[in-house]
Amino acid sequence: MTKPVIIGLTGSIGMGKSTVAAMFEDAGIPVFDADAEVRAMQGPDGELNPAIEAAFPGSTGPEGVNRDALGKLVFGDKNALARLEAIVHPSVGKKRMQFLADNEGAAIILFDIPLLFEGGGNESVDVVVVVSAPTDLQRERVLARPGMTEEKFEHILSLQTPDAEKRSRADFVIDTGTTFDETRAQVAAIINEIASSRV
Each residue of 66-91: b (16+ CB within 10 Å) or e? Predict the structure, then answer.
């Protein structure tokens, strides 16, 4: 049986990656959302909560991980962030392997991975799709988010591979600085090109 083509979807904050991932899903492509898996594992009775609480006391409660409290403990502290990632990443990896097994009959599978290049995940996918938009639109979208500040935005950007570098390393770039219909058309074109290359 032919193995599915694995797309790695990524993009900097505010570029419209979640919207594009939903468009792939609407087109019938199975989507593995790494962030959604992490949120589930850190929610009420989440499987990661005991280990996170042990490493970062006071960061969890009845509702699961308190993202604000945990954020304050790891914000700007590379060692703390590395400790957190050592707890989270292996579990996400297991979920991803299970997702692959569950969808082995699909022609195309998409992994929605915000830090694809930063974590070296681009090495384990077949096709890299980068979602991008003009920087002024990106800034406008991000600063409209509740609780977002210029400082937080700049800090997040500093942790991410620059947009220009992502675009240069991509197999496909989706421009979300256009209408939804135009973005959806770009998604459809990528799916058609990948599907036709498998024939």
Answer: beeebeebbeeeeeeeebbeebbeeb
pLDDT at 1: 59
190, 129 in Cβ contact below 8 A?
yes
Same domain for 169 and 149: yes
Q: What pTM, to 2 d.p., does this model score?
A: 0.86
Clarify whether residues 67 and 120 are in a common domain.
no
**Amino acid type, 127:** V
Residue 132 lies in a domain: yes
Running along the chain, 199 residues long, what does each successive block of 10 average in pLDDT?
A: 89 94 97 92 93 93 90 84 90 92 95 87 92 95 93 88 94 96 97 86
Tokens of 3: 């193995």
Q: Cα Rg for the chain, rounded, in angstroms?
A: 18
Q: Are residues 166 and 95 in the same domain?
A: no
Q: What angle (nearest 5°) sits at the alpha carbon of residue 176, between those of residues 156 and 196?
A: 115
Question: What domain range is 169 assigned to?
Answer: 1-30+108-199
